[in-house]
Amino acid sequence: MRIIEGVVCIAVVDGAEVLFGKNTGEGQGSHQNFCTNDLTPFLNVSEAKNAKAELKNRFGAEAVSLAKLRIDLAETSRESYMLRKRRRLIVVRKMPEFKETVLIGASNKSARSRYPLYGALLGENGFQSFTSFEPAEYAASEEHRQSGCPVFLATFKFKRL
User: Fold this and answer.
1) Domain coordinates in residue numbering, the chain
2) I need a surface site. Which of 37, 68, 96, 131 has the fewest CB within 10 A?
3) pLDDT at 109
4) Can you give the pLDDT at residue 115?
5) In whole angstroms, how large is the CA radius of gyration of the chain?
6) How many C-alpha atoms does 126 have within 13 Å on its Cβ side?
7) pTM, full prediction
């Protein structure tokens, strides 16, 4: 199980919330899109605050805030099975050809439809996770079936600061 824990910046860009974490060599400045930096958050709040200022000044974000998160990423089917009784689950789709990760949670009225895919992008649904295993497992199987990309289940704890 891969544990991802730290602080992220949430930038509002064109009405959607985009997560930013630590720059791993692909972005400019101290920040990089969380979904293109292999899900690497900032280690502490002070690092994230520096990036928050950069995002406001250089990126032109409408608003920037901070959040603490923890993702327990099940990388094997056995680890996924261990999540059966957990709540707050998300689907993580890896797109290796683009070096991108897609985070998917529960559908709600504020998120755009992804029909025929199940669920909603986390940045569009207010970071709402699935509340039980079955809908998360169904979303993961549909993501894999329709995209052909590797798909994982994960727990998702998220608290705005």
Assistant:
1) 2-69, 71-160
2) 96
3) 77
4) 63
5) 15
6) 6
7) 0.91
SS3 of 84-121: the string is CCCCCEEEEEEEHHHCEEEEEECCCCCCCCCCCCCCEE
pLDDT of residue 116: 65
The two structure tokens encoding residue 131? 């509340």
pLDDT, residue 117, reads 77
Contact in structure between 63 and 71 (CB atoms under 8 Å): no
Six-digit token pair at 134? Answer: 């079955």
Instruction: Identify the bridge partners of residue 66 per DSSP, sorted by sequence position.
Output: 9
CB atoms within 10 A of CB 84: 12
Contact 110, 124 (CB under 8 A): yes
Beta bridge partners of 121: 104
- The dihedrals phi and psi of 33, each to the nearest 5 degrees, come to -55, 130
Positions in the chain short of pLDDT 50: none
Do residues 103 and 51 lie in contact, with contact meaning Cβ atoms separated by under 8 Å? Answer: no
- Contacts of residue 7, Cβ cutoff 8 Å, sequence gap at least 6: 41, 42, 43, 44, 45, 47, 48, 66, 67, 68, 69, 161
